[in-house]
Write a structure and sequence with these properties.
single chain, about 400 residues, alpha+beta, six-stranded antiparallel sheet, four-stranded antiparallel sheet, 14 helices
């Protein structure tokens, strides 16, 4: 989805931004303290998992805020693949090319508007949804002999839908195996169950979530198409020498100084994302730091994971990222250039690279972590103060897209 228009109201110092139109790439220009950052950060309210704080509401609009106000709203244009995906899942609906997202001061969840398309909010028992699928199975279980029914665990169908295909397949296979064991003396019952279990319509990829057409559409967009906004500033640029003592103290909720040598306060987010991509458990590493062989094995595995996840978004020749453990409980990030002929050059600490390289590396760490965590292929990034980051040489090498 492409953001085409947005508006911010009653958020921090912004009374009403008015409607702002944007293209594929937009620059937001204004004086210091004029509200540029505030307007951009307001768009993060459109993220599914974002929370609205009372402290973020504009004090000067307290009377207006007694009613319901759209704090942030954005109009998004669907691309051809997204239009096709919606049509496949909801063939009875007219073609949708635009969707509006908004969040108010009275409701925590992001809401959707679908132009002038009429979408039913009535319960639809014919909808191919997880809810109806669960009811179908529970209704079937009510028809089998009671001495079998009371032995069957139905917790899979009493809660929300599985998060992905793997969890669905695992849960269904476990339930089916349980069913076969319990009903082994009842071949007719097993035969009826197999008809449900093997039905093509009951495959996870075809199941929606919701009891009405509108709720199913909203849940589908939330899980498959909902955009993510991430604010990225130069303050998140890391240099690659991470103080693990400070990191562990912060993870315990203790007050810390700097998570990285000579680093500003919000470097911690990039460090956390770095470890998240590497799937590195710092507590586990801390336990084996006195055993070099175990420590090296953990770091080599983490380094390979990190390299694999960063390179798809990296411009130019691939890089190899190595995490090294140093005396004083310091973690260093070492970068090597991997050329097309397989040669490895320029191996050295991240802090010895150019400022533009360090910024790009930190940016991609956050980009990859946020999109992976949200299970998205892309995200909207707000980049601040680029003129302070890029040298003329690095501007030519880096492209924003």
């Amino acid at each position: 989805m492409r953001l085409r228009k947005f508006r911010v109201r009653a958020y921090r110092c912004i009374h009403d931004s008015g409607e702002i139109t944007v293209g594929d790439l937009a620059a937001f220009v204004g004086r210091n303290e004029s509200g540029k950052t505030t307007i951009l950060q307001a768009l993060t309210l459109l993220n599914r998992d974002e929370k609205v704080s009372e402290l973020d509401l504009c004090d000067e609009l307290s009377e207006e805020l007694k009613g319901e106000i759209r704090l942030a709203e954005g109009e998004f244009e669907l691309n051809s693949n997204e239009i096709r995906l919606l049509k496949q899942s909801f063939p009875g609906l007219p073609e949708m090319k635009k969707i509006k997202l908004f969040r108010t001061n009275k409701k925590q969840k992001v809401q959707y508007e679908f132009e002038d398309i009429q979408i039913s909010e009535e319960t639809d028992r014919g909808l191919n949804s997880w809810e109806n699928f669960s009811k179908q199975i529970l209704n079937f279980l009510d028809t089998i002999p009671n001495h079998l029914r009371i032995q069957i665990d139905t917790k899979l169908f009493d809660g929300p839908p599985p998060k992905n295909q793997e969890m669905f397949d695992s849960g269904m296979a476990e339930f089916s195996n349980q069913f076969h064991v319990i009903a082994v003396q009842e071949p007719k019952v097993i035969e009826e169950w197999e008809k449900i279990y093997e039905s093509p319509e009951n495959q996870f990829s075809k199941l929606l979530s919701g009891e009405s057409e509108k709720s199913a559409l909203e849940n589908f967009i939330a899980s498959e198409l909902h955009p993510r906004f991430v604010y990225f500033s130069d303050y998140k640029k890391i240099y690659g020498n991470i103080n693990l003592n400070e990191y562990l103290r912060e993870e315990k909720g203790e007050r810390v100084g700097s998570i990285e040598f000579v680093e500003e306060f919000d470097k911690a987010e990039t460090v956390r994302n770095l470890f998240y991509l590497a799937e590195l458990d710092i507590k586990a590493l801390d336990e084996v730091k006195g055993t070099p062989s175990k420590c090296i094995k953990i770091l080599n595995t983490a380094s390979n994971r990190l390299t694999k996840k960063l390179n798809p978004a990296w411009k130019g020749d691939p890089i190899h990222v190595e995490l090294r453990y140093n005396p004083g409980n310091i973690m260093s990030v070492v970068i090597s250039d991997i050329h097309r002929d397989g040669t490895v050059t320029n191996t050295g600490l991240l802090n010895r690279r150019a400022e533009g390289f360090k910024w790009t590396f930190s940016f991609i760490v956050n980009f990859a972590a946020e999109t992976q965590r949200a299970e998205l292929k892309e995200a909207y990034y707000f980049l601040m103060n680029l003129q302070e980051i890029f040298t003329p040489h690095s501007k030519e090498e880096f492209q924003i897209y």
